[in-house]
């Protein structure tokens, strides 16, 4: 399973764009990249998933370079409620395949 | 979207007793579910893989006789913490994918906070 490396923490202010980069140098050919958000005492919540290039949904964008050895989660115009831990996970999207969590990035948004 | 539900959300039990945690897939059938454990200020750690109709597979260092997993139906997996001790106090989270949807991500339950006194 591909190991991921993220910054331990990041600080931002309301209204700013936040970019969190994840390194996954040994990603396998069929691995997908998935980002989750976790609030205290809650289960991780799916944010976005991608395989290559750029993916965008209503809450975030995911940028994946051609070599796929890293990915960047972009959160536009963060608010206080975006304060959470963000996890980047890499692995197969098969029913029987678990994902291994790294340490995650604690994002703190201030007013 | 796919929903995974856990029950109870929190439980307090006395040392030496057993506690059962339920994990249900609400709108899909899951032949496989995963159980994670999370200690304060740490990341999630995979404990075991629950397989419908067969034995669970446990990660290294997880005692199978202490953490009993039963996956008796395609929508329900249970984790029983037997003879619980204070060091078993943790946040337990289950997850599953919807096999009927291509490239389905893992969906997580809201977790169960276990406190052993």
Descriptive overview:
Chain A has 111 residues and is an all-beta fold. Helix content of chain A is 0%, strand content 47%. Chain A has no helices and nine strands. Chain A has strands at 9-13, 18-23, 32-38, 45-50, 53-56, 61-64, 70-75, 84-91, 105-110. Chain A has a five-stranded mixed beta sheet, with no helix packed on it. In chain A, strands 2-7-6-5 form a four-stranded antiparallel beta sheet, with no helix packed on it. Chain A is globular and about 40 Å long. Chain B has 117 residues and is an all-beta fold. Chain B has no helices and eleven strands. In chain B, strands 2, 4, 5, 6, 9, 10 and 11 form a seven-stranded mixed beta sheet that branches. Chain B has a four-stranded antiparallel beta sheet with strand order 1-3-8-7, with no helix packed on it. At the A-B interface, strand 3 and strand 4 of A face strand 4, strand 5, strand 9 and strand 10 of B.
Which helices and strands occur, and which strands form pairs?
The complex is a heterodimer of chains A (111) and B (117).
Chain A (H helix, E strand, L loop, with lengths): L8 E5 L4 E6 L8 E7 L6 E6 L2 E4 L4 E4 L5 E6 L8 E8 L13 E6 L1
Parallel strand pairs in A: 1-9
Antiparallel strand pairs in A: 2-7, 3-4, 3-8, 5-6, 6-7, 8-9
Chain B lengths: L3 E4 L2 E4 L5 E7 L6 E7 L5 E8 L5 E2 L8 E7 L2 E6 L8 E7 L10 E2 L3 E5 L1
Parallel strand pairs in B: 2-11
Antiparallel strand pairs in B: 1-3, 3-8, 4-5, 4-9, 5-6, 7-8, 9-10, 9-11
Provide a quick synopsis of the model.
The complex is a heterodimer of chains A (111) and B (117). With 111 residues, chain A is an all-beta fold. Chain A contains no helices and nine strands.
